[in-house]
Amino acid sequence: MIPCFAAEKTLGRLTKWLRLLGFDTLFESELSGKRFIDSLESDRILLTRTRRIYQQFATRKLIFVESDHLEFQLNQIFRELGLKAAQTRPFSRCLQCNLPIVTVEKTALLGQVPDYIFETHDHFNQCPKCERIFWPGSHTCRSLEKIRQLFDYKTGSNA
Ligand SMILES: [Zn+2]
What we know:
Elements: E1 5-7, H1 12-20, E2 25-27, H2 33-38, E3 45-48, H3 51-56, E4 62-64, H4 70-81, E5 102-104, H5 115-120, E6 124-126, E7 133-134, H6 141-155
This protein binds zinc ion.
């Protein structure tokens, strides 16, 4: 079972990275505070850095995020939930909209991506909401490197 998350507004960077790894992650924005938390499905794991929230909503699924640092935050979540690298789906979700991106026919994209990209790639995905187009390599090498590091970090020398 792949978990889904909801993150409070101090956890924007963590939200982006959970989405990047493929996890459905809502972010506290228009709705905030108690209204945000009350709007969540019961199986959605609330990520909070606020001790008061942690205590007030102790009966729901939540993780009290201990660190300020992204790597430690991700490591804590993966450790507490026993998540493995195989359960991630990197680059399968729009970072802005939190929706799974879908395959689109290349021919439908003529003129919508740079010519060089159109000529050198055959597989394209698109966010159904914001319509942003993705192709292999449209994500920075830095993101890939970071993912690699995260899992190296997590598994240590036993990898
Ligand atoms: Zn989008």
